[in-house]
Specification:
Helix content of chain A: 40-55%
Structural class of chain A: mainly alpha
Distance between the termini of chain B: 63 Å
Oligomer: heterodimer
Number of helices of chain A: 5
Radius of gyration of chain B: 23 Å
Mean pLDDT of chain A: 76
Strand content of chain A: under 5%
Number of helices of chain B: 1
Distance between the termini of chain A: 40 Å
Order of helices and strands of chain A: HHHHH
Mean pLDDT of chain B: 92
Radius of gyration of chain A: 15 Å
Strand content of chain B: over 45%
Largest sheet of chain B: 4 strands, antiparallel
Low-confidence stretches of chain A: 1-37
Largest sheet of chain A: none
Number of strands of chain A: 0
Low-confidence stretches of chain B: none
């Protein structure tokens, strides 16, 4: 049986992550969990994430992700960024810049999937 | 009557009828507007009297964060696209009259008091470009160079009386005024160290005050443009970021802000509050808790109500504040991802775009009932031609 820590973050964990006091624990859990590369968000969740990135991240990074107030998020622009660094930026934000931490809305699995897709060239929203 | 006369009369009548049939019906522009369909590079032309979509104009590129200014005759809309394209539309014929790819990444624009110059504020390359409003020929290029080879992203561009534009440099903590009285040789006046990271700004409806919101510190910067020697000074320190800055999921927009009577109503940044400021003393006189991080805080034209929309994840709501009692009188849920609100010229109705609901709701501002809804794909900014007559719009 896999240890609990390898399971996707439960809502409880996500809530806990919001508390700065357990930030270290959260990172620990996230780090260990991230080794479980066989888990990724459900197809429905992936569609939601694509929408969030294109629309809400797009407020600052542009709907085409070519940048705006925030930098471009194209594969070329992110070429030398490790996934872990992107995940950390997505969840924690970047201090000194307008980039907020999105851990109130995204969990580690979401952020990792988004980071991987950004490095590959982010998918388009499926047209209905 | 002779046969000849009869023939002449009959011919004349035929000619008159023919002329009537071919003459275009004259149409005014006072109740027209445009709605940005952000995902498909299209704007819809709308009529606020009939509450209908008249038609579409396509082929405008990346319209995420697009904004619009109008010519004085209200017949032309200048659309500033995110991808740096500036397009001049004739909203009567619904055709593109001119288009220029003027930058790599743009955030909006302004039109001069006399309607002859259109200015675009750009992130990439950072600066302002000024165009002939008729032809979109480049008149002046003003790079926001604040250190050798370093260009700042430009925000908070607004028109000022005269041939002047004012704007803020996000990366340089500066505010500049460009005077284009001699268009080919813009005269620049620079205010430095105005505060950290100005993120947006506004000019008051009388053109007297320019106010920039600061992301990097807790306060705003004010310039009294009527002062003999205008200076940038800090106001409302502690206005919005608070002691513990919160994540800001979407930058508040100050343009289109709310001045109602003697009070200005401002979005707090990060916090779920709207702040009330006395415009004589520039002191805070109240705060109202609201349903999320405010993005637009807009006064109905008469100033009796203030309408507020919010950043993700609270962006399915809109709240209406009564400015006299300072109470929230209604919380509306027009649809998911409310991005913008626009009042009809005299404010009897407000149009609200809900991006993810693919819906524009038209709401009676007295009864707060929905009068009508229009189906439009991913609607964002809504702009009515009444903006043509207002400073700072």
């Amino acid at each position: 049986m896999r240890p609990d820590i390898l399971q996707p973050l439960s809502p409880g964990w996500v809530a806990a992550c919001r508390q700065a006091t357990v930030g270290a624990l959260c990172l620990l859990a996230g780090g260990a969990w991230s080794q479980a590369s066989d888990t990724e968000p459900s197809p429905a969740r992936q569609q939601t994430l694509i929408h969030i990135v294109r629309q809400d991240c797009g407020s600052c990074h542009g709907m085409r992700l070519k940048g705006g107030l925030g930098p471009a998020l194209t594969p070329e622009a992110l070429a030398d960024r490790p996934v872990a660094a992107l995940v950390s930026t997505i969840l924690q934000g970047r201090s000194g810049t307008p980039m907020p931490g999105w851990q109130g809305m995204l969990d580690e699995q979401d952020a990792r999937w988004i980071a991987q897709q950004l490095l590959r060239g982010f998918p388009e929203v499926k047209q209905p | 009557m002779t046969t000849t006369l009869r023939l002449i009369l009959s011919l004349s009548l035929t000619l008159i009828l023919a002329a009537c049939a071919s003459a275009p019906t004259p149409v005014g522009t006072g109740d027209l507007g445009v709605v940005i369909e952000r995902a498909n590079g299209t704007v819809a032309v709308v009529n606020t009297s009939t509450q209908t979509v008249l038609g579409d104009i396509a082929g405008l590129g990346d319209l995420s964060h697009a904004s619009v200014v109008f010519s004085r005759d209200g017949a032309h809309a200048y659309v500033f696209g995110r991808d740096g394209a500036l397009t001049k539309l004739n909203i009567l014929t619904r055709q593109i009259e001119a288009r220029t790819q003027q930058a790599g990444n743009s955030i909006g624009g302004a039109i001069s008091q006399d309607g002859r110059l259109v200015a675009a504020q750009n992130y990439e390359p950072g600066g302002v470009k000024v165009f002939d409003a008729q032809t979109l020929a480049l008149v002046a290029d003003i790079p926001a160079e604040y250190a050798p080879g370093k260009l700042s992203r430009v925000v908070g561009l607004a028109d000022l009386p005269g041939h002047r534009f004012i704007f803020s440099l996000f990366d340089a903590d500066q505010i500049w005024i460009a005077d284009l009285s001699t268009p080919q040789k813009p005269a620049l006046q620079k205010f430095t160290q105005i505060g950290h990271q100005p993120y947006d700004a506004l000019v008051t409806p009388d053109g007297r005050y320019y106010i920039a919101g600061l992301f990097g510190e807790d306060g705003l910067t004010l310039i009294d443009l009527w002062a003999p020697q205008p200076q940038a000074r800090r106001i409302l320190q502690g206005y919005g970021r608070g002691q513990q800055p919160l994540p800001v999921y979407k930058m508040p927009h100050l343009r289109g802000w709310a001045v109602a009577g003697r009070q200005a109503w401002l979005p707090a940044i990060g916090h779920h509050e709207v702040l009330i400021v006395d415009t004589d003393t520039w002191q805070e006189v109240g705060r109202i808790p609201v349903a999320g991080q405010p993005v637009f805080v807009m006064a109905r034209p008469d100033g009796r109500q203030v309408w507020v929309n919010f950043a993700v994840p609270d962006y399915h709501r809109v709240q209406v504040i009564d400015t006299q009692s300072r109470q929230i009188v209604q919380t509306l849920e027009p649809g998911k991802a409310v991005l913008h609100m626009e009042f009809t010229p005299r404010g009897e109705a407000v149009w609200i775009s809900s991006r993810d609901a693919n819906l524009v709701s038209i709401i009676d501002t007295q009864t707060l009932q929905t009068l009508s809804t229009l189906s439009l794909p991913s609607p964002s900014g809504i702009f009515f031609t009444s903006r043509a007559a207002r400073m700072g719009f």
